[in-house]
Design a protein that fits this description.
By secondary structure, the protein is α/β, with parallel strands linked by helices. The protein folds into three domains: about 1-35, no CATH class; about 55-260, P-loop containing nucleotide triphosphate hydrolases (Rossmann fold, 3-Layer(aba) Sandwich), CATH 3.40.50; about 275-435, Ribosomal Protein S5, domain 2. The protein has helices at about 60-70, 85-100, 115-125, 140-150, 175-190, 210-215, 315-330, 355-365, 390-400, 430-435; strands at about 5, 10, 30, 75-80, 105-110, 130-135, 150-155, 195-200, 220-225, 230-240, 245-250, 255-260, 275-285, 285-300, 310, 335-340, 375, 380, 385, 405-410, 420-425. The chain has a nine-stranded mixed sheet, sandwiched between helices. A four-stranded mixed sheet has the order 13-14-16-15. Strand 18 and strand 19 form a beta hairpin. The chain is elongated. It starts with a strand and ends with a helix.
């Protein structure tokens, strides 16, 4: 295509006054026919390709290593998260630990070095091998890399890097794509680990062109709410490891710290059982976490439709479960307000918590607590059946290790010699009877 938009890179066979993608006026320029660059690497037969050399670097935070699986030389990691969630804090902590084994260059396009130093002082970081640079020009960043020869590079953030003066305004699609491509090539050529920070859109996706996610080796997201101290580091893509792991971190006055026992972090365990609360073993990656689902069912005001509010649970899924309960249990809550929450700010994304949600709602309606030491597990179908969940036996084995004595779960195979009284149910009504809520 001979014409290309300077703002977003859109290509057209003819000149256009206005770009149909980004809406910029008079932004098309003649790209011209380009000859292939000299040199390059020829194709190699598969048996003759040498294996990747070098040991995986550990970040010094076992929870982060659990997610990334270590860092190979030349790996490029894209980190995203909501503003204020702690991306810069986490990367500064990782940079400090990695600087104990080699030079680390931390480039900030949003803060001055004095501002980064202020955060480092708060975190108790004073590594001499950690170098700070406040820069937005890509060529100057590349020059600093060539002069310093760091083992690890951190760029915070990708949207602040100016790849070329004629590529549109800073943060545009072209600027972000070219900056990411250049830094990725440089990292792989030098065997340097690179962390690139990316902004997150309102839809929860990485800002910029989708090409950036294809260029990097791993994409991770730091999730949480600024009002709470819980943070989850979740891997979306990982060429060198698994994408089924999650790190549980806690924000404190000295930065992000690992949660000692994440399996029990989200339940209180204090005092006798309370009506409207159910403990559910949910799966995050390969790890079983126990969460407490809380429900409050109260009489409606009589003005307008009843309230339906959820925190940490899907509202649409909750509405379906309320309809199933009304159909198969005869529980009428259509005129009542229903509030549901997952304690600790955790977000449950899987259907394995369905039976626990129903138990919490019914416990609030009947004002009856679930017996102490009991966990609830199972997916509830539209016909009122309780279905097995993914890795159910492994979850029950973990529950037994954590000191629980009883579980209500779907029918299915159980681990041998399981020190846990498991009541297997096939329907929602059987589950509520086993929980003494019917």
């Amino acid at each position: 295509m001979p014409y290309r938009c300077r703002g977003c890179g859109y290509q057209s066979p003819k000149w256009l006054g206005r770009c149909p993608r980004c809406g910029a006026w008079d932004s098309f320029e003649d790209s011209g026919a380009q000859a292939p660059a000299p040199g390059g690497e020829p194709p190699h037969p598969l048996p003759e390709v040498p294996p990747l050399s070098g040991e995986r670097l550990t970040t010094g935070l076992p929870e982060v290593d659990r997610v990334l699986g270590g860092l190979l030389p030349g790996a490029v990691v894209l980190l995203g998260g909501e503003p204020g969630v702690g991306k810069s804090t986490l990367l500064l902590q990782l940079a400090s630990r990695l600087a104990q084994r080699g030079k680390v260059l931390y480039v900030s396009g949003e803060e001055a070095v004095a501002q980064v130093k202020l955060r480092a002082d708060r975190l108790g970081i004073a590594e001499p091998n950690l170098y700070l640079q406040s820069e937005q020009e890509l060529l100057r960043i590349v020059q600093a890399i060539e002069d310093l020869e760091p083992a690890v590079l951190v760029v915070d953030s990708l949207q602040t890097v100016l790849a070329r003066p004629d590529g549109g305004e800073i943060g545009s699609l072209v600027q972000v794509r070219e900056a990411a491509a250049h830094l990725a090539r440089l990292a792989k050529g030098l065997g340097m680990v690179a962390f690139l920070v990316s902004h997150i859109t309102k839809g929860g996706e990485f800002a910029g062109p989708k090409t950036v996610e294809h260029l990097v080796d791993a994409t991770v997201q730091l999730e949480g709410v600024r009002e709470g101290d819980l943070r989850l580091l979740r891997c979306v893509k990982n060429r060198f490891g698994s994408t089924s792991e999650v790190a549980v971190l806690q924000m404190g006055p000295t930065g992000l710290a690992e949660v000692p026992n994440p399996s029990l972090f989200f339940i209180s365990g204090d005092g006798p059982p309370k009506p409207g609360a159910a403990v559910v073993p949910v799966l995050e990656g390969s790890r079983t976490l126990l969460v407490e689902v809380q429900a409050l069912v109260a009489p409606g005001s009589g003005y307008g439709p009843p309230q339906r509010r959820t925190a940490g649970l899907d509202l649409n899924r909750t509405s379906v479960l309320l309809a199933v309960m009304e159909k198969h249990l005869g529980v009428h809550v259509r005129a009542m307000d229903v509030y549901l929450a997952v304690a600790g700010g955790f977000e449950v994304r899987e259907p394995g918590a369905d039976l626990g949600v129903c138990a919490a709602i019914l416990g609030s309606v009947r004002n009856r607590p679930i017996p102490a030491g009991t966990v609830v597990l199972g997916e509830v179908g539209l016909a009122g059946e309780v279905r097995p969940v993914r890795r159910g036996p492994e979850r029950l084995a973990e529950v037994a290790k954590l000191g629980f004595s009883r579980a209500v779960a779907p029918k299915g195979p159980l681990p041998k010699r399981l020190p846990l009284d498991v009541i297997q149910v096939q329907t929602l009504a059987q589950g509520m009877e086993a929980l003494e809520l019917a």
